[in-house]
Amino acid sequence: MVKNALHKMIWAGEKATGGKLPQRLNEVLILGYFQDQAIGYHDDGEGWLGPTIVTFSLGSNATMTIRMKGKYYLGATGNNLKTYDPNQEIVNGCVAPEYREYMNENWSSWTSKKQTTEFGILKSMRPGNSLSPPVVFKTTLAHGDYIVMHGDDLQKYYEHQISNDGRLRYALTARHVLPDTVDPAQLYKGDYVTDPQDVYHGDMNAFEVADKERAEEEDKWIAAYSAAPQPAKLESE
After folding, report:
1. How confident is the model at residue 138, as a pLDDT?
2. Element (H or E) spanning 116, and its range?
3. Which of 4, 44, 93, 100 is the most buried (most CB within 10 A)?
4. Strand 62-68 relative to strand 168-175, pairing
């Protein structure tokens, strides 16, 4: 199942990026979520990961949202004056970019009182005066859906969260782990050679034969178990 899912995620990644993936997806992370469990806002921009991340969702629906990180949206983390960085990059979609430029140019010459005042003015410019950056993308992940995140800038400037909308959901996430960042002693896990019949090209019936053969093999095992002598049942007094 995991190999089949991996090849489908490779196919989805290639479709989403318009061609062959720049790096081979060499890791599949599997997580399960029970009712009301969620992953809060985070990014997958660890230095040991490649730019393409593909997730295959199974089970209950889930809601995924993406927003700009606070340090780029407002120039500060958690709306906290103490974290305001006048050297922080100003990007499209942030709060009052021209006012930010004015603040950054004069920040070091201002007194702490002046900085507090100007930061308060900047915060008042947030749309709807919301404490959090607005959601720029929202989608429902149904059973069998894929979501592809591609590009280093997506993980650098934005963060995402996923909430489980039902009782049980599994997420299989394929990523590329940069070999040079892994302890050599932990790197080698055995050889994996792709069987041509495992490669997925978008055909919904691609694995029909393999699934049928697997089901027939399972039926043989069940029949053999049923025909085998069963242990005597202990009768209660």
Report:
1. 96
2. helix 112-124
3. 100
4. unpaired
Both tokens of residue 160?
């995402």
Give me 123's structure tokens: 């915060």
Q: What is the pLDDT of residue 234?
A: 46
What is the C-alpha radius of gyration for the chain, rounded to an integer number of angstroms?
A: 25
Q: How many CB atoms lie within 10 A of CB 156?
A: 13
Give the chain's length: 237
Give the CA angle between residues 73, 77, 79 to the nearest 5°: 85
Q: What is the pLDDT of residues 87-142, one digit of tens each?
A: 999 999 999 999 999 999 999 999 999 999 999 999 999 988 788 899 999 999 99
Q: What is the pTM of this model?
A: 0.78
DSSP string spanning 55-82? EEEEES-EEEEEEE-HHHHTSSSTT-GG
The mean per-residue pLDDT over the stretch 43-70 comes to 93
The span from the CA of 23 to the CA of 51, in Å, is: 8
